[in-house]
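User: Need the bound-state model for magnesium ion:
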Amino acid sequence: MKVDVLLGLQWGDEGKGKVVDVLAPQYDIVSRFQGGPNAGHTIIFDNKKFVLHTIPSGIFYKDIINVIGNGVIIDPYSLMQEIDNLNKEGFEVKQNLKISRRAHLILPSHRVLDAFYEQQKGKNKIGSTLKGIGPTYTDKVSRNGMRAGDILTSDFEQTYKNVKERHLRIFDAYHFDYRSVKIDGLNFEEYEKRWFESAERLRTFTLINSEYFLNEQIKGGKSILAEGAQGSMLDIEFGTYPYVTSSNTTIGGVSTGLGIAPRKIDKVFGVFKAYTTRVGNGPFPTELFDDDGEKMRKTGQEFGATTGRPRRCGWLDLVALRYAVMLNGVTDLFMMKADVLSNFNALQLAKKYSIRGEITSEFPVHSEEVTPQYEKVEGWNAGLENVSNKESLPQELLHYIQEIEAFVDVNIKMLSVGPQRNQIIYLD
Ligand code: GDP
Ligand code: IMO
Ligand code: MG
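Assistant: Bound-state model below.
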């Protein structure tokens, strides 16, 4: 029996996909527990790049079962597109993918609602990926949603109609022409048609009571890696609300999103970048608006895997990192993209914030008001391409690692120095 969890500790895009892909062979099952197609997890091997949105990152291994858990929300059209792309590259998805019947469905009208709510917010817009995440989780919580298992029932179309008509009444009330919104470049009717075709296809997949399946597997001695999406600072409870996503990206999401009891969880792997990025709006205390930020974006190719938007970049924020480590009970840290900082003479680490003249090392409720207090450390100013073990790492990088470990009180187990599977250095 073994359930380990891997999750992002910043604002998403930490490199979770790469690490899951690397660790997957040690597990029997990889399972997503929250989020939906707002996620974009990049995996690169054999000179090919894949971006997964809803499918767990263990899909490239034939004998690993991949489970989309009940806490995930699914857009059938987006999921089928993802499956078709993988099929084209020679990966047979159907036989090792299982989908929870309890997972909620993103309807075309959820996508339009997402766009509508963002438009309503004007300059305060979240910067959503517009995949329908907020409205779908809202319908789930307000008990108006639709689940994957509904596809298997005879009144599936009626259930769809009821949910959609409720949405149309909202548009009516606001005199909003829902047909004016294009979804993935398609008009509403066209998207809806494809959505239904995809829902039909979804019926032919293995829809299961995943909470039973996973618990039986645990009992039978199988091991599970739970794969988080987004990051702790985008958590609906603990993130920079309201600039967050609509699910629990932190550890509690594993229990509610898979039906796995907390006491069955063993290791908690926390993934973070050697610096910080954020895509979309909202507080970002250590954000850089100068050449250093531009250098990180360029070197790190910091453009969104789902939307292509440039990611905002900044120094490593240890106040936020320690907060995320605490919330999740992280046991092992994985530091990603160390290679991106190779050309800096000096680096800054935020260890405190000042808020209206007061100094704190706690992440506050209103983080837009903080000014980070930095400690300067020396950069390593050396490429890491040819480094394959801890002994050959530059002293300055080892010092950077020690500073982080001492501050958050958890060890960094693995260092990533490039996007490829093998660009990894184990530290203990
Ligand atoms: P995820 O959402 O957490 O899975 O992360 P994304 O895939 O959205 O973004 C991470 C990006 O960084 C991807 O383009 C990866 O290929 C890339 N990447 C991952 N690890 C490293 C690394 O150590 N160095 C560099 N340069 N790129 C990396
Ligand atoms: P992965 O799994 C980075 C951000 C969006 C926006 C906010 C709300 O690849 O790390 P939503 O579409 O959920 O309503 O958007 O959250 N966001 C992400 N940022 N990585 C992600 O996923 C994200 N998923 C959502 O940019 O600011
Ligand atoms: Mg991503």
